Amino acid sequence: MKNTPFTHKHIVLGAKMAEFAGYNMPISYTGINDEHAAVRKNAGVFDVSHMGEFILKGEQALDLIQRVTSNDAAKLKAGQAQYSCLPNKEGGIVDDLLVYCIKENEVYMLVVNASNIEKDWNWIAEHNTNDAEMHDISEKTALLAVQGPGATKILQPLTSMDILNLKYYTFVKGTFAGVDNVLISATGYTGAGGVEIYFEDKEGAAEKIWDAIFAEGTPQGLKPIGLGARDTLRLEMGFCLYGNDIDDTTSPIEAGLGWITKFTKDFTSKEIFAQQKAEGVLKKLVGFEMIEKGIPRHGYEIKDFEGNTIGHVTSGTQAPSLGKAIGMGYVSSAYSAIDSIIFIKVRDKLLQAKVSKIPFA
Hints:
By secondary structure, the chain is of the alpha+beta class. 20% of the residues lie in helices and 34% in strands. It has helices at 7-12, 32-41, 61-68, 117-126, 151-155, 205-217, 227-237, 270-279, and strands spanning 16-20, 23-28, 44-47, 52-57, 81-87, 93-103, 107-112, 133-136, 141-147, 171-176, 179-185, 194-200, 223-225, 283-290, 301-303, 309-319, 324-332, 341-346, 349-356.
């Protein structure tokens, strides 16, 4: 099991640790509900150094990205990022990812899921027929996500870069907490605002940045947050988690990700997705909230009024900010309209739920 540059910090702070994507990661410190509330109301720090980062360089870099991703990276200017996915040849999703434009038409950073680093690297390399320069910098890159409405105010004194006014899906590079070449972006996974801080873990940079953030933030209520609250926060927003809500068998059209599927260029499975968009799909990913008391869990069956199976739950939780149980799942398209009544099979009971808008409210 691998450690991140901050593993010792989590252990000293008394975090509940567990294996996640091959890493020893903090699941919670003071409890998921408490940590969730801290991020929604103020600010919290997530160690997400397990994520993967690839640098693609050279004249062929953009062409390669265009061919392997569903979104249109040609629209990106330096300092901009976009959400995208890597489609496979069968119309499924190899992974979802972020594309950062470091230097237009020349240097890009791809941020991929921790569990898919090797798979994604091999997939992209397989399609790198024009020899774009590729570098896997995952092992040496540290990443902290400081999320919440108070995050940028807490962090601004640590840098001369203007992060208070950083627009969503943009980033800046410079010195942060005395460490050079730090990339700070606003591409958060919680829906609560905040930034992500990427930097190379060398010469004690991880310790320096962690300590500076908490020295500045602790008096203002900043807390360390585990992966448990990260999951409840992203689920309230209806953000997909790879391996749960999207995978090699689900298409972006089925998953409601048509907005990152651009048909103005050629890319893997373009024809399959175009047909799905034109003809419709048999199943759709929907959000739902429980009407009857019970918590939906990954893998639970979704039924219709007669008890026929019409889908399955992909994610579910008791939403701390909302005071109700919510979930996401794939259902037959006939049951995907807002306010459609569905039933979740919890043990031997069929509990009533209704399809709801995302983000949940």
